[in-house]
Amino acid sequence: MVAIGALMPGIARAETPGNGGPNMPAVVTFGLFIIVTLGVTAWAARRTRTTSDFYTAGGGISGRQNGLAIAGDYMSAASFLGISAQIYADGYDGLIYSTGFLVGWPIILFLLAERLRNLGRYTFVDAVAFRFAQTPVRISSAFSSLTVVLFYLIAQMVGAGQLIQLLFGIPYPYAVGIIGLAITAYVLFGGMIATTWVQIIKAVMLLGCATFMSLAVLYRVGFSLDTLFEQAVAAKQAIALAAGASADAAAASARGILAPGGFIKDPLSAISLGMALMFGTAGLPHILMRFFTVRDARTARASVLWATGWIGYFYVLTFIIGFGAIVFVGSNPSYLDALSGGLRGGSNMAAVHLADAVGGEVFMGFVSAVAFATILAVVAGLTLSGASTIAHDLYASVIRKGNVDQATELRLSRVTVLVLALIAVGLGIAFEKQNVAFMVSLAFAVAASGNFPALLLSILWKDCTTRGVAWGSAIGTLTALALTILSPVIWVGQLGAAHPIFPLASPTLVSMPLAFFTIWLISTLDRSARAQVDRAGYTAQRIRSETGIGAAGASDH
Q1: Any idea of the CA torsion for 368, 371, 372, 376, to the nearest 10 degrees?
Q2: Residue range 187-246, pLDDT digits in tens
Q3: How far apart are CA 311 and CA 294, in angstroms?
Q4: CA angle at 342 for the pair 98 and 87, rounded to the nearest 5°
Q5: Is the separation of the CB atoms in 509 and 494 below 8 Å?
Q6: Can you tell me whether residue 343 is helix, strand or coil?
Q7: In the chain, count of helices (H) and strands (E)?
Q8: Mind listing the pLDDT tens digit for each residue in 6-17?
Q9: pLDDT tens-digit readout, 435-449
Q10: Three-class DSSP category at 336
């Protein structure tokens, strides 16, 4: 996932072209966002009194609101800047990210959303462990979930810290500290209610920003996609000729942006990456947690429909933005580095430079601030997800065996938020100079390999057992971690080896099937007394998952 992970160093440079100082419109927009969202947090704090309020907003979020919040949680800065930058660089091939991210949602809609809401209470692990022995299943699932949260969090903190550093001109450690204070305020005091509204506000800003950019691009080409593509090919050809390519080579290179195969040439790599994007979506703990914020399964299903619509619309816009950047940014010397010939500020700045090209400095500042708001909303969701995993799945359910009062669990949840914020700040500072490209990729691979198989089979397969789920989730997670280390991204790119031990950049093609196979094999061979209990509990689980009888309602949710 080159564009997604490589995003972080690129978004840091939010300065105006030709001016290395802070972009004041970005600073003002950022300040307004902070003021408004802190006001929302103060409002939410008065309504956050129980663990249900803290984890799931009391189940009182509507389907439309939750769908927009899911979209806000999912449409990260990597999606906005990274995908548009990938399309800017490789054209049509960049759509693998848009397509992969989007097609994961029908899986959630038809297989998981309704069942997940009926079986769970606060986290997706509640659904996984519904009929199984709690301790082994919750420990293995919590391990994979925290791994996803940790790597996702590091990448987001590094990018946000670098962005704030340049917006305000303050040292990087203080910039990361500001992020830590902001997410602590949102989650510690406002819980899921504040996090939801921060994500809704961010989603509206991002969708509005992307819509304006796309309309501005289309206006300049007479609202003709054919004209846009023709001008993009001409711009790419001119760039190639300026770089010294022959006429035939330049023409072939330019036409390549309208065909597949320029970015991912190996079919196995394309399949592995596609699997990570599609099935990883259905295993992201901070996304799955949002299905417990609504009152019932029908509203959860409506949430997915709304989210899919907004997300699909957004990814169509990134396609227009990417090709628009080829036309209006790639051929403009003021946006190019004089020495390298690449984009000023890095390849992921294509959308930001396009904002300047179509809307001027003020709009570019707004886009820069939206990029930060995007990261902040995602970090808030990740922090809350991590806190719920530790306080609810591990402490309340494993250590205390469910014998814990709401006040104690809520207090521990808030302490956990503080600890996670401190860890996030520490890791953000520690990884300041590191290439974090592999971390978002690894998060999706672990979600696809550790969380998704356990969740799917525990809900749909009657012969699934405690041992199968616990071992399958753990092996899927560990395999994804090990193969990522041995892949070209780390083994060659980070450790400097001449050749990778594992040839694919994404491990999902191996690690996810291995997790499914492990769950199947161990469950099939399991003849223990616990396995008999697990299998006998499937009928009751299926009735509840399909009908909602016995599911937590909004009043006590």
Answers
A1: 170
A2: 989 999 999 999 999 999 999 999 999 999 999 999 999 999 999 999 989 888 887 888
A3: 19
A4: 15
A5: no
A6: strand
A7: 24, 0
A8: 443 333 333 444
A9: 665 677 788 999 999
A10: strand
Side chain identity, residue 443: A
DSSP β-bridge partners for residue 343: 336
Residue 525 burial (CB count, 10 A): 12
Query: In this predicted structure, what is the pLDDT of residue 435?
Result: 60
SS3 assignment, position 510: helix
Q: Any bridge partners for residue 336, and if so which?
A: 343
Report the SS3 class of residue 552: coil
pTM for this one?
Answer: 0.88
Six-digit token string for 171: 């040292």
Q: How many other CB atoms sit within 10 Å of the CB of residue 254?
A: 22
Instruction: Say how far apart CA 5 and CA 179 lie, in whole Å.
Output: 19
Residue 226, CA atoms < 13 Å, CB-side half-sphere: 0
Q: Which residue type is seen at 405?
A: D
Q: What SS3 state is found at 6? A: helix
Q: Given the structure tokens 């209610």, which residue do they identify? A: 193
**Residue ranges in 169-246 assigned as alpha helix (H):** 172-220, 225-242
The full length of the chain comes to 557
Token digits of residue 390: 């530790």
As a whole number of Å, the CA-based R_g of the chain is: 23
- Give the DSSP H or E segment for 269: helix 267-281
**Cβ–Cβ < 8 Å for 191, 53:** yes
